[in-house]
């Protein structure tokens, strides 16, 4: 490629970027022209070397803020020609460097933030759109995505790569299971529109594919009629067995529109177990509370807490807690999150053992959550889950003190708990801060590993995409 003094340049032998070709040696080649920004400055690169976890720090050589999917096509083709690794970063909510790339180029998808269309046929949105932005926009049309994560300030592209779990997953699957079509850029730099009927192999590989086959630039998402109001229910249990049985019963008959469990410290060093659910409606209709709560048998000593709030406020329920964490500084501390899918038959055993092994102060400052999941609702080819039909996603979302010893202890906990979960038939959820070697990934995929390798060879043969997952050596 001819060199232009107005473009950054890359020297392939020393793997060095230069701000312009005028500063580069004769062997350097100019980067392609971009509509957006391609920057090499240290502050931009340092930002891309961080994520919500504050555990892994990989410094990229450059950052692309694309103006369009064509910018990503140009970058990926250039990267293929010169062996440069590339990753796409959304809201950087990954806890373990999954979207980072040492010495490569990070694509900052926040510049791709347009909502193109909203109708009963679906929402067409860029990958960098946040779910909070999308929900506000769809509610103006009395529509909503079927599944929303508890924290809405995540990017659409980011959650579709890993699945995306929320309180309605037990009814509708992952967020990635509610996608109608995608626009992607493969690891070879091909811009392709795909769906269940058009390039289905690519479509089903990318959803939940951990960024290994293509980068999502736009998605068409399923929408459904939205209510105006959510009636919320908080039921308290003093033992884990009745709590898990109640979650299983409520999930089986799908009486709630969202459903999860939460563990909180109780009196005198005990633990309390909450069933947190909602029933959505639009007045003058309203839920029948006795019928909704039938058979759930919470503690008689603690009255259920029942309240009405707007549907948006309920879906955005974590916003106040996040604001407090940001104000206290805890948001910028390390977050060694633990997330694992468990077979329902082993969930109580694992949860009890895990919680008994952790200091009470860890549980007190964490979000400890349990989501029921129905296997038949899940369709992502490469999100591995236990073989039982009834599952739970168990999350221990901790914040570590900003000291090496505290972080090392919690990361050790994660590895120990993961080994125990594997022994009970569990599977890691890929967002977790659990170190994995390529051999660990092969074990994770099991019989699907050969297909995963084949798809990688087809769509990203030079292995330039998303190395931060650590799947390939």
Give your account of this protein's structure.
With 473 residues, the chain is an alpha+beta fold. The protein folds into three domains: 32-110, Uridine Diphospho-n-acetylenolpyruvylglucosamine Reductase, domain 2 (2-Layer Sandwich), CATH 3.30.43.10; 112-225, Uridine Diphospho-n-acetylenolpyruvylglucosamine Reductase, domain 3; 229-428, Vanillyl-alcohol Oxidase, Chain A, domain 3, CATH 3.40.462.10. It has helices at 42-48, 69-82, 131-139, 156-162, 169-172, 200-206, 240-253, 289-292, 311-315, 319-328, 344-357, 360-365, 404-423, 438-445, 449-459, and strands spanning 9-11, 16-18, 29-30, 37-39, 62-65, 86-89, 105-108, 115-119, 122-126, 143-144, 179-186, 191-195, 214-221, 224-225, 229-237, 258-265, 271-281, 305-310, 338-343, 367-374, 390-397, 427-428. Helix 7 packs antiparallel against helix 11. The longest helix has 20 residues, at 404-423. The chain is globular, with a radius of gyration of 23 Å. Mean pLDDT is 96; it is low at 1-5.
Question: What's the gist of this structure?
Answer:
By secondary structure, the chain is an alpha+beta fold. It is built from 15 helices and 22 strands.
């Amino acid at each position: 490629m001819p060199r232009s003094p107005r473009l950054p340049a890359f020297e392939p032998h020393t793997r060095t970027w230069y701000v312009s070709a005028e500063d580069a040696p004769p062997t350097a080649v100019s980067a392609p022209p971009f509509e957006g920004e391609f920057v090499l400055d240290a502050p931009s690169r340092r930002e891309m070397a961080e994520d919500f976890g504050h555990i892994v720090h990989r410094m990229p050589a450059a950052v692309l803020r694309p103006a369009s999917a064509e910018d990503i096509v140009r970058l990926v083709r250039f990267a293929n020609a010169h062996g440069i690794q590339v990753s796409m970063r959304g809201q950087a909510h990954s806890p373990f460097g999954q979207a980072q790339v040492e010495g490569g180029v990070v694509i900052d998808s926040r510049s791709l933030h347009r909502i193109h269309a909203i109708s009963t046929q679906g929402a067409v949105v860029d990958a960098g759109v946040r779910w909070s932005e999308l929900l506000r926009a769809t509610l103006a049309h009395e529509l909503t995505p079927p599944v929303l994560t508890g924290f809405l300030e995540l990017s659409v592209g980011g959650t579709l790569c890993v699945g995306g779990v929320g309180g309605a997953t037990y009814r509708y699957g992952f967020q990635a299971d509610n996608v109608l079509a995608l626009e992607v850029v493969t690891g070879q730099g091909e811009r392709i529109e795909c769906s269940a009927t058009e390039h289905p192999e690519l479509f089903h590989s990318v959803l939940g594919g951990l960024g290994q086959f293509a980068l999502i630039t736009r998605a068409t998402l399923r929408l459904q009629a939205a209510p105006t109001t959510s009636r919320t229910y908080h039921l308290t249990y003093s033992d884990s067995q009745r709590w898990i049985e109640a979650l299983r019963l409520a999930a089986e008959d799908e009486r709630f529109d969202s459903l999860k469990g939460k563990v909180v410290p109780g009196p005198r060093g005990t633990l309390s177990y909450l069933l947190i659910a909602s029933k959505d409606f639009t007045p003058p209709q309203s839920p029948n509370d006795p019928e909704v709560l039938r058979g759930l048998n919470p503690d008689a000593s603690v009255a259920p807490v029942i309240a009405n709030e707007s549907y948006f406020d309920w879906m955005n329920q974590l916003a106040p807690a996040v604001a407090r964490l940001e104000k206290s500084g805890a948001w910028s501390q390390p977050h060694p999150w633990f997330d694992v899918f468990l077979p329902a038959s082993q969930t109580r055993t694992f949860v009890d053992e895990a919680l008994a092994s952790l200091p009470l102060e860890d549980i007190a400052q964490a979000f400890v959550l349990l989501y029921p999941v129905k296997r038949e609702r899940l369709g992502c080819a490469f999100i591995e889950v236990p073989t039982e039909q009834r599952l739970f996603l168990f999350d221990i979302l901790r914040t570590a003190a900003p000291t090496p010893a505290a972080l090392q202890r919690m990361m050790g906990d994660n590895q120990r708990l993961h080994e125990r979960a594997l022994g009970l038939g569990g599977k890691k959820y890929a967002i977790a801060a659990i170190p994995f070697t390529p051999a660990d990934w092969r074990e994770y995929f099991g019989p699907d590993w050969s297909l995963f390798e084949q798809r990688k060879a087809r769509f990203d043969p030079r292995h330039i995409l998303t190395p931060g997952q650590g799947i390939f050596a």
